Amino acid sequence: MSLVTSKEMLETARNKGYAVGAFNVENMEMVMAVLAAAEETGSPVIMQTTPGTIKYAGLDYYLANVRAAAERTKIPVVMHLDHGNSFELACKAYRTGYTSIMIDGSKKPFEENIALTKSVVDVCHSGDVPVEGELGRVGGKEDDLDNTGEVNPYTDPAEAKEFIERTGVDTLAVGIGTSHGVYKGTPKVNVEVLSSIQKVTDIPLVMHGTSGVPDDQVRDCISRGICKVNYATDLRIAFTEGLKAHIAEHPDDFDPKKYCAPAMEKVKAYVMQKMEVVGSCGKA
Question: Can you give the pTM of this predicted structure?
């Protein structure tokens, strides 16, 4: 089937109390592995790329890979721009054919974030493409993202309500204590902040920086309004571990198909397990 947008997919998840996994894909093999996991579990799926990944090959290359995957399956597949960092990139992804767009103005002052987000919403909604905004701060470093520093990471519930009303965003990524990259120690999500946000908002909420967050915390967050759960770092780790293990055992192999196959299996297994955690199995 053709690529779909995230609008109906996430509204359905919100109404039925589960979430959809959003997985960052870095190459063709990761796209294939994520799709295989979605097909085996019967899960709707969101595949996404960050600005740093896009620099590596371009929007069109990644879109072509994910579009080919979507056209081979009956599983609903979304192509999402993750952490779009400018109006220009968001619009370029929209024009290229991405079916879901994130504009991340979370580093900007509140009014500037509203203005930037609304400008992207106005463009994308003209073509019925949904937009994800971000309010609050997801910490850590990953890819081209650097949110380290002394900044309050939590989304203010009153600001979240106003932000949604003034921008018209379809989904909102919230700061609840998660972090991009590899955690030092066990993360602790502030579910009280999340519950307060849920009480005053009426759109699907998004959890970033989920790699490394214990599954029980993820499930708790879903019960409190999270409908899209992002995974990135752990997919990269899984792929690399599979590749390294094969080369260690077969140092003379030079065919990429040989060492990419076990890397794909590691990614597939990881994604399948997270689809069970978010409750999307059988929901395609």
Answer: 0.92
